[in-house]
Amino acid sequence: MSNSGSRASLTNDFERFKRALPRDFPAHVRDTYRINLAARYLGEPIPHPIGKGSGQLSLNSGQLETDAEAGLAFAVLKTVIAQDPAGDQSMAAWAIHETKMKVERRGGGWTVTWKGRGWDRSFDDYLALARAAWDFTRAGLLLTVPSVKYHLPRLTEPFRDDEYAFTTHALAQACGQTPLLLEKDFSPTLAGDPLADEKQQILRWLREVPAKIKAHANVRLAMKLMNARFDDDFQLEMVKAVASADALVVFNRLFDPQQGVAYGGPELSDRNLRVLARLTPGTSPGIPELSGTGNVSSGRMIVEYALRGCSSVQLHTFFQLPLEEYPATEGSRTQRALHALMFDPRDGLIAVMLEREAAGALERRGGELHFLDLLPGAKR
Ligand SMILES: Cc1cc2nc3c(=O)[nH]c(=O)nc-3n(C[C@H](O)[C@H](O)[C@H](O)COP(=O)(O)O)c2cc1C
User: How far apart are CA 12 and CA 343, in angstroms?
Assistant: First the structure.
């Protein structure tokens, strides 16, 4: 089909999928548009680049079931606070309960204001969630990945290895998967904590944490980096300090010290894209796979992250909008969000890939446009 023929089909698909998005929409996109959406998260092939970031939307198996039905590519489970065999948690201040979330406009986009932090139920409950999540993964329905916040010491203190050992072993057993896929969270609220006042302290965590985790199990590790309260140069220094991680999730929300809350919206994606643009492949050797997070609210924004090296994206806020903000009229929020991100005739992923083809910025290979060809340095 010609580029203009594809655009006509897109308008048609956008309208009819408002009522129901086919679960296997990547196959439909491949057949109809000759667009291959295949992407990658933590070294795993995924059918398209859109996943769910860790948070309040991956707390129970009901949410995972809805996501699997919608055809989401992957879901990162809520962050659990590590503990030692006696149940002590050095980061216990992060295991606080808070139910109120407010979805609000900020800077011309959306943000979720919420004062809670990590998983606030028992560690055994988390292991049960990780086991249930693994069932979805094993069945090929949804790639799931647990997330942990482990002990982060002051510069003069040692790491609490017993927390690293106990938590990592327990998760490796619960998931029964080798290697264990795992995210390590450095949250935005940490950026607002006196613990993160010292650059040297943060750099030491980034250098040493991967080995601390990997010492205890066969782990494929994504490090989810916070937006520290320093400048862009330091943000780059952080990326380069991470040793031996298999992926980086770039970058968690900004911290507003006046209100004492983390936030997102356009200010977050502006900062993330600005920093990522300085990590040109080739000039930044040794940078692992990247997964983008922050204000992904259109296919166009997915492309912006991909052009800066991200082979997947992880969303939270866009899965939480008031229902009337989605163009779809039926289906779960996950389905409605995927529908808009993929099929919007102006700013959806398909439209933007076709637009780049028409502009000569993306070429077909074997008759297909490939999402992963958007990444700099992709093999043509
Ligand atoms: C209410 C809420 C809770 C979150 N909880 C976590 C968490 O426990 N662990 C984590 O790594 N990220 C957490 N995040 C960050 C999201 O996973 C995501 O990276 C971030 O919000 C940026 O994406 P967005 O702009 O699409 O929301 C949370 C975000 C929100 C809004």
Answer: 10
Rounded to an integer, what distance in angstroms lies between the CA atom of residue 15 and that of residue 9? Answer: 10
Mutate to test the pocket of ligand 1, among 253, 261, 333 (most ligand atoms within 8 A of CB): 253
pLDDT tens-digit series, residues 192-206: 788 878 899 999 999
Quick: pLDDT tens for 87-97.
999 888 887 78
Name the helix (H) or strand (E) containing 258.
Answer: none
Please state the pTM of the whole predicted model.
0.97
Burial class (CB in 10 A: 0-12, 13-18, 19+), 276: buried
Q: What is the whole-number distance in angstroms between the Cα of residue 252 and the centre of ligand 1?
A: 7
Neighbours of 332 (CB within 10 A): 18
For ligand 1, residues with CB inside 6 Å are 53-56, 78-79, 101, 112, 114, 118, 147, 185, 187, 224, 252-253, 264, 268, 293-296, 314-318
